[in-house]
Design a protein that fits this description.
This protein is an all-alpha fold. The protein has one domain: Globin-like. 71% of the residues lie in helices and 0% in strands. It is built from 6 helices and no strands. The chain starts with 6 loop residues before the first helix and ends with a helix.
């Protein structure tokens, strides 16, 4: 089970909601550029993804920002993401690569708005979300084996 987010992290994410939502497409486009540049071997995981994959991730990022204090509302979305990850064989080791790419993209796109406080809060939030998804995915992988 993922460790709960601190009130400070939730408050920072909540105050950055508009900034993240309004830049989510730019952030996710940049994230994929960084991801595929730095970790070219993960590109094969996206071989059958739709062309607008960056927009799908942007929507998920926005939903997370808006619902940071109501994660239970995201359960159907998280289930869909986990299911997609299992279909494409995403493993827990891929999450740090995506996290690095996402946070770097936030810094690149948000520039001066990407304060240390904002990036630290999003790092915590990403870790939290990763732990939830990895748990869901591990359960799905176990079901497939049985």
């Amino acid at each position: 089970m993922a460790k709960e987010l601190s009130k400070k992290t939730i408050d920072i994410i909540a105050t950055t909601e508009d900034l993240i939502v309004s830049n989510s497409t730019k952030i996710t486009k940049r994230m994929y550029e960084i991801l595929f540049n730095k970790y070219p071997h993960v590109k094969k995981l996206f071989a059958n993804q739709p062309e607008n994959q960056f927009m799908i991730l942007a929507e998920a990022l926005s939903l997370f920002a808006v619902n940071i204090d109501r994660i239970d509302k995201l359960k159907p979305t998280l289930q869909a993401i986990a299911s997609s990850h299992v279909k494409t064989n995403v493993k827990s080791g891929h999450y740090p690569m995506v996290g690095f790419s996402l946070l770097t993209a936030m810094e690149d796109v948000l520039l001066a708005d990407a304060t240390v406080e904002l990036i630290d809060a999003w790092r915590d939030a990403y870790q939290y979300l990763s732990e939830i998804l990895i748990g869901m995915e591990n359960n799905m992988y176990k079901e497939i084996k049985n």
